[in-house]
């Protein structure tokens, strides 16, 4: 059996002491694997990632139940910079680069000396950034920002890389390239990746395992290849129902029946 | 000539204060209403540390002021400002108003509201054309202020901590997620701001006097920051120069009593023409 | 009989009730009765303190309406008091106007100044507005200082004004003032309570909570912000005028920026957004320096330097502001509310539905 790097058990997160965003989520991320977390809008994917990478006190979010174990350490309620220093690096959904700093400063911001990930190596993965080195990051395009954000995250020497919506606002062709690149990087550097995606097809294509979330809970999980061919997952979450026939009442009933919460 | 010297030194005093205000504003979107009090208390600490050492060496009072800035900065941030994120905006302002008045009471209790002039033992030396004299103290003021701003520039531009500082000011959450201890950076902002204020207090105490009334330099500094733009260090210098000129001219030509109101009249003018200040960004208007 | 708890309001009529708990009527009656009988039982000095409390409470109510309900922060309250005081001086000393003319005149001057200061509030918010009110403070104080300097070369101790009289009745002495200010404060309080539970108060609270949303709801920002400033400055100016009459002497040195901060402290300590809080805060902050003075009288003589006592009095204001903001941001009024809730639920100990958390 493979080592488990990150284990989330029965996680419950409450915002502002009133809004429960995630309820009883459990997931496991084996060392060296890529795990995809997919689901509809508002399913609680971002919240799950944020709980792992830590909330600032000002966000008024609280882990009210469950455990998050990283390696052999329970990391509930750690501050973001403590998690970052422990090697858990999040590439957030929005505001992922410092817009008022130059590209170079953004990369330097994160760079911690030592380790095998150097600035040159990162620029090797994202050659585009080299040309834009002295430009303000705020003026980059969405895709360039995403590359910069990943570059920044890599320079923080991650062990576990958490990526929220890699494909947000990117052209399909770019998504495909970026996914392939991510796969390559993670294999070359031996990274473990937990990837949140809207574009489930693209994510499950490079992932080893997948979890499907809905309404703050995990509703399906399994090997990525199994999920991608699972008819229910395909129908409910990947949007590509195999048959194009019009749905009958029977299908809807089936939808009800098949939907269930795990954990 | 005399007036040029006065204006330059007044500009230095206000620019240091305004720089602190700008740094604090950028770092945590707080406007510090206790800056004048911090400056004057810093000056008093400098004076007292000098007395304790028998006035033999400059290092002792300097160390005193530095220690004061570090302790005050850490304390204000860690014990108070840190707890105020997410509260309505007026809470942070009123806390700084409270800090200001507590510091004022410290002047009354510890220093018995004594009127003091800091004398570092260098006499007026250089005679300028036009009959004005310029003391070494004045020259030191200018040199120190320039050095402070140059240091600040180099720090923000070229050091990693400086870059992290700027990043934290823009997006504290992301900075934290990249491994920066936001509390450390923001405490540092307070320490730097108070250090600048103390220096300004010492300069002011060397040229005029320290007393409970001199805390109004904080208001001049605040005005300078606003005139220049709350989020611009360049603006701090420009604003300080404008306030210094306006104040000097009013005292000379109109009425000394008005000099306290001058910064504000100036402010009202700037606010009605260009409310975000000379070098500021317009969006900031809606943020606080 | 069903009871959902007194803090939970389920319809408009309920939310307009001033007195919700049956025993509150008794409580109010008792407080008033005690207030009426109190002078008989205490010393003249204590009555004097209460007079100061009552008169400054009128000013505190004004600031509470502006800051606590309309959300416009002001550091210029001392200037409004000064305006009232100096209007009184000018009218009594130069014109010889009677009390019944002076008070409305002070109210009008206050309202006019409030209108002028309210104008920038239409364009600026938050910190910028606070700084503008500060600017206003210094400008008013400058004018007052020059007036006082020109008035008499020997007026450094202040300008004396005569005791006020309404018709044949001269308001003179602590006890007369006591009943006069008690009646006045009661009337002003009732007026304020009614103001905040009717249209202007609701508009102010909407502006305080989110001005843009309030405007989108059709609330006329210009009108209600200006109104808040005018009501606030009117009350402050009347309070300043009364305090001037009460102390018989006006000097510009009274109206420092520290005084403005003390008024801010009153509404913080009392509790933002509560009329009861304004009253409690005014009493607390007015008595505080005297309390400290009293404590110092127990200390050895060598500790009792004038500047030390004064310094501690000043510092206590700041410490109150900081501690209340950090620990009990809703002030004494919230503490009182908790006590009330405790008794409402009395035999049961479950936590009440928290309806006040923002
Ligand atoms: N800061 C917050 N305060 C209150 N509720 C929040 C906050 N952030 C998220 N939520 C709520 O938590 C739930 C889950 O949100 P989350 O952002 O985790 O969803 P998501 O799966 O990332 O959605 P998307 O795919 O749209 O990014 C939502 O119902 C949302 O309304
Ligand atoms: Mg999300």
CATH architectural label of the largest domain in chain A: 3-Layer(aba) Sandwich
The name of the CATH topology of the largest domain in chain A is: Rossmann fold
Estimated structural class of chain A: alpha/beta
Helix/strand/pairing category of chain C:
mainly alpha
Q: Determine the N-to-C terminus distance of chain C.
A: 30 Å
* Assembly context of the chains: heterotrimer
Strand content of chain C: under 5%
**Which spans of chain A of ≥5 residues are poorly predicted at pLDDT below 50?**
none
Terminal CA distance of chain A: 22 Å
The helical percent of chain A reads: 25-40%
* Most residues in contact: chain pair: B-C, 46 and 47 residues
CATH homologous superfamily placement of the largest domain in chain A: P-loop containing nucleotide triphosphate hydrolases
What does this structure look like?
The complex is a heterotrimer of chains A (263), B (288) and C (358). Chain A has two domains: 4-87 and 159-258, Rossmann fold (3-Layer(aba) Sandwich), CATH 3.40.50; 98-157, no CATH class. In chain A, 37% of the residues lie in helices and 27% in strands. Chain A contains eleven helices and ten strands. In chain A, strands 6-7-8-3-9-10 form a six-stranded mixed β-sheet, with helices on both faces. By secondary structure, chain B is mainly alpha-helical. In chain B, strands 1-2 form a two-stranded antiparallel sheet. In chain B, a hairpin with a 5-residue loop joins strand 1 (124-127) and strand 2. The radius of gyration of chain B is 19 Å and the shape is globular. Chain B starts with a helix and ends in a 15-residue tail after the last helix. Chain C has a two-stranded antiparallel sheet. In chain C, helix 4 packs antiparallel against helix 5 (99-121). Chain C contains 14 helices and four strands. In chain C, 73% of the residues lie in helices and 2% in strands. Chain C is globular. By secondary structure, chain C is mainly α. The complex binds adenosine-5'-triphosphate and magnesium ion (MG). Adenosine-5'-triphosphate is lined by residues 15-16, 19, 21, 39, 41-47, 93, 198 of chain A.
């Amino acid at each position: 059996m493979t080592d488990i790097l990150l284990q989330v058990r029965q996680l419950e997160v409450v915002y502002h002491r009133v809004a429960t965003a995630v309820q009883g989520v459990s997931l496991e991320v084996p060392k060296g694997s890529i795990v995809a977390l997919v689901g509809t809008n508002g399913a609680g994917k971002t919240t799950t990632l944020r709980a792992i990478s830590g909330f600032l006190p000002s966000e008024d979010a609280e882990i009210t139940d469950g455990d998050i174990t990283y390696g052999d350490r329970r990391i509930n309620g750690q501050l973001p910079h403590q998690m970052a220093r422990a090697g858990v690096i999040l590439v957030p959904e929005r505001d992922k680069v410092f817009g008022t700093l130059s590209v170079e400063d953004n990369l330097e911001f994160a760079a911690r000396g030592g380790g095998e990930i150097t600035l040159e190596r990162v620029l090797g993965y994202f050659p585009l950034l080299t040309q834009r080195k002295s430009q303000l990051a705020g003026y980059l395009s969405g895709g360039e920002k995403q590359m910069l954000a990943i570059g920044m995250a890599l320079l923080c020497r991650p062990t576990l890389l958490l990526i929220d919506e890699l494909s947000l606002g990117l052209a399909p062709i770019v998504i495909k390239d970026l996914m392939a690149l991510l796969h390559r990087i993670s294999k070359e550097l031996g990274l473990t990746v937990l990837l949140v995606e809207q574009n489930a097809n693209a994510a499950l294509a490079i992932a080893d395992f997948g979890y499907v979330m809905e309404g703050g809970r995990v509703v399906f999980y399994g090997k990525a290849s199994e999920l991608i061919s699972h008819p229910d997952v395909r129908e409910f979450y990947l949007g590509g129902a195999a048959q194009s026939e019009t749905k009958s009442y029977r299908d809807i009933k089936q939808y009800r029946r098949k939907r269930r919460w795990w954990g | 000539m005399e007036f040029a010297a006065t204006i330059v030194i007044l500009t230095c005093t206000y620019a240091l204060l305004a720089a602190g205000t700008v740094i604090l504003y950028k770092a945590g979107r707080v406007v510090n209403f206790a800056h004048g009090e911090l400056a004057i208390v810093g000056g008093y600490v400098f004076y007292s540390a000098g007395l304790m050492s028998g006035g033999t060496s400059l290092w002792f009072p300097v160390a005193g002021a530095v220690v004061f800035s570090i302790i005050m900065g850490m304390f204000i941030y860690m014990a108070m400002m840190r707890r105020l994120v997410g509260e309505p905006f007026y809470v942070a302002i009123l806390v700084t108003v409270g800090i200001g008045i507590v510091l004022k009471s410290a002047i009354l209790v510890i220093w018995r509201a004594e009127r003091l002039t800091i004398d570092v033992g260098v006499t007026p030396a250089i005679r300028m054309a036009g009959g004005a004299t310029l003391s070494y103290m004045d020259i030191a003021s200018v040199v120190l202020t320039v050095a402070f701003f140059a240091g600040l520039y180099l720090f923000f531009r070229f050091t990693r901590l400086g870059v992290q500082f700027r990043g934290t000011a823009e997006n504290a959450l992301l900075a934290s997620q990249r491994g920066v201890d936001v509390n450390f950076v923001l405490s540092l902002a307070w320490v730097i701001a108070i250090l600048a204020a103390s220096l300004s207090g010492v300069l002011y105490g060397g040229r005029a006097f320290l007393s409970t009334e001199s805390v109004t330099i904080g208001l001049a500094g605040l005005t300078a920051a606003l005139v220049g733009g709350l989020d611009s260090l360049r603006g701090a210098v420009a604003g300080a120069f404008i306030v210094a000129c306006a104040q000097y001219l009013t005292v000379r030509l109109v009425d000394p009593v008005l000099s306290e109101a001058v910064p504000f009249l100036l402010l009202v003018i700037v606010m009605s023409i260009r409310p975000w200040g000379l070098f500021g960004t317009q969006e900031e208007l809606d943020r606080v | 009989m069903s009871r959902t708890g007194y803090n939970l309001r389920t319809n408009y009529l309920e939310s307009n009730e001033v007195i919700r708990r049956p025993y509150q009527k008794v409580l109010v009656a008792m407080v008033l009765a005690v207030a009426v009988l109190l002078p008989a039982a205490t010393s003249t000095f204590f009555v004097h303190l209460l007079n100061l409390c009552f008169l400054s409470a009128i000013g505190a109510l004004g600031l509470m309406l502006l800051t606590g309900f309309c959300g416009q922060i002001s550091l210029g309250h001392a200037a409004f008091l000064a305006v009232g005081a100096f209007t009184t001086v000018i009218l009594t000393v130069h014109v010889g106007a009677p009390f019944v003319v002076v008070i409305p005149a002070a109210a009008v001057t206050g309202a006019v100044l409030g209108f002028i200061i309210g104008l920038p509030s239409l364009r600026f918010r938050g910190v910028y507005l606070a700084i503008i009110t500060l600017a206003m403070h210094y400008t008013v104080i400058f004018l007052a200082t020059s007036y006082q300097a020109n008035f008499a070369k020997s007026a450094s101790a202040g300008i004396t004004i005569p005791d006020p009289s309404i018709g044949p009745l001269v308001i003179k002495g602590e006890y007369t003032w006591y009943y006069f200010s008690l009646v006045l404060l009661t009337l002003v309080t009732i007026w304020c309570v009614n103001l905040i539970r009717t249209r202007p108060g609701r508009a102010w609270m909407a502006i305080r909570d989110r001005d843009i949303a309030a405007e989108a709801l059709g609330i006329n920002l210009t009108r209600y912000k200006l109104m808040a400033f005018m009501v606030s400055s009117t009350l402050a100016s009347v309070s300043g005028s009364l305090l001037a009459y009460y102390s018989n002497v006006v000097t510009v040195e009274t109206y420092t920026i520290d005084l403005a901060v003390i008024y801010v402290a009153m509404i913080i300590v009392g509790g933002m957004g509560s009329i009861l809080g304004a009253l409690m805060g005014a009493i607390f902050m007015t008595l505080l320096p005297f309390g400290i003075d009293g404590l110092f009288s127990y200390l050895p003589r060598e500790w009792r330097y004038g500047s030390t006592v004064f310094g501690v009095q000043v510092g206590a204001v700041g410490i109150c502001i900081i501690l209340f903001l950090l620990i009990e941001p809703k002030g004494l009024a919230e503490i009182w509310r908790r006590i009330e809730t405790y008794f409402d639920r009395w035999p049961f100990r479950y936590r009440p539905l928290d309806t006040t958390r923002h």
